[in-house]
Amino acid sequence: MESRNPSTNDDLQNEGRRKFFKLSAIGAGVAAAGAAGGFISYRVNGVPHDTFPVEIDDTVLTPFDQRNSVFSYAISQKLQEQYPERNTAFAEELGIPVFTFSSIMKSLISHSQPNPAAWDNNTLGYRQIDWALCHAAVGPLDRYLAPKSKFGSPATGEHTWDQLNLATEKWQFSSPEDASQHIKRAACLFGADRVGITHNDPRWNYSPIFDPITSTEYSWDDDFPFVPKTVIVLAFEMDYEAIRTAPSAVSAASVNNEYTEMSLVAGQLADFIRRLGYKAVASGNDLGNNVAYSIAAGLGEGARNGTLIVPNFGSRVRTAKIYTDLDVVEYDKPRSFGIMEFCENCKRCAEQCPSDAISMDDKPSMAPTYPGSDRIDIAWHGQKGIKKFYNDAKKCFKYWGDNGIGCVICIKACPWNKPDFWHHRLIDASNTVTSGFVHKLMTEADILFGYGNMEVEKAVEKFWVSDKEK
């Protein structure tokens, strides 16, 4: 992604440099890490693994029932009618008299309309022009690319299960490496920022698949059009300056724009593969767990806030995937980048979360630990048996309703979320080989530099006065 207005970026870069070199203790730590030379380069590129790099308890872990997804549940009137006790139990947990998921959806829908009642033209980030940007960014997705795919609705638009344009003759790649190279090059041409390829893994697939719009359940054996063997994962960078405006409508515009782009690109790549004679289905938030597949494909690591962190982009990414029966392809290995160790010592996203939805635990766990997580009527959505930080998605989603739009404050606050300046890459490099005390220093330095805590109105002003370089 190109940088913003040169004057804006230069000022920010020079300020960052000055503050960076004033922190002599941190500078010494970075220099010491730099002395490791080739080892740092090795760690920055990630330590490869032959198996999934996160500890898993296969006696507990089962495929995720999509009916338990907070997003699918929130737009399914049938599910809400089936489990009315969930609203009551969650209201009790929050200490409020009434809670309904349908009320959150009504709030989100009302703000998606060109309705003056939803505008606050006296507040930067929530004005008519900010809301216009937010919803124009997602317009093509909702109209025809893949309606409701953000909430997990399968087989819509570009995510069709129909094997359109399937060639009757299969293109013969010269080798698995050749297949991987051509697929990745096509994906980058279409617009993906990162590409990884991994095996289809039933542990990361929703089962059953659920359409929250029609309340239809699908199985992989009886309903999916083929037996998938490979999953191609695509990562898309979200705009840095827009994310800095979180939780305003401008930050949501960046999220929406990548949802639109990822649906288009995934659809194009699926069409490309079908035209080579192999079956393929594009997928956004439907069909399976994007973070798990991204980790398996070597794109990054899971973070404390539940998102994927990709080196150079941080958690400022959205991901899509393509399921295909093409299996003569070189698979990427999952890699560790030192991100989880950093998350253990940082907690910046949890401290900034307005709904207290993100875990403050010192270490990841194999099951949820947040209050009420032992009650099935409240904590129905967790996929236990994976060593990670478990967060309360319902508290997060409630804030969406309060805000009238998504949030992404946790992404804004993350120290890995930076523009691509050389001194940020140097810090990223040191993060891979240091731990504990130095990680805490890096977090404090991030706050000192002014990243991740810019006031919303100031960030909105900066966003609207900057231009892409031509």
UniProtKB/TrEMBL annotation:
<dbReference type="InterPro" id="IPR006311">
    <property type="entry name" value="TAT_signal"/>
</dbReference>
<keyword id="KW-0479">Metal-binding</keyword>
<keyword id="KW-0004">4Fe-4S</keyword>
<keyword id="KW-0408">Iron</keyword>
<keyword id="KW-0411">Iron-sulfur</keyword>
<dbReference type="InterPro" id="IPR017900">
    <property type="entry name" value="4Fe4S_Fe_S_CS"/>
</dbReference>
<dbReference type="InterPro" id="IPR012832">
    <property type="entry name" value="RDH"/>
</dbReference>
<keyword id="KW-0677">Repeat</keyword>
<keyword id="KW-1003">Cell membrane</keyword>
<feature type="domain" description="4Fe-4S ferredoxin-type">
    <location>
        <begin position="334"/>
        <end position="363"/>
    </location>
</feature>
<keyword id="KW-0472">Membrane</keyword>
<protein>
    <submittedName>
        <fullName>Reductive dehalogenase</fullName>
    </submittedName>
</protein>
<feature type="transmembrane region" description="Helical">
    <location>
        <begin position="20"/>
        <end position="42"/>
    </location>
</feature>
<keyword id="KW-1133">Transmembrane helix</keyword>
<keyword id="KW-0812">Transmembrane</keyword>
<dbReference type="InterPro" id="IPR017896">
    <property type="entry name" value="4Fe4S_Fe-S-bd"/>
</dbReference>
<keyword id="KW-0732">Signal</keyword>
<dbReference type="Pfam" id="PF13484">
    <property type="entry name" value="Fer4_16"/>
</dbReference>
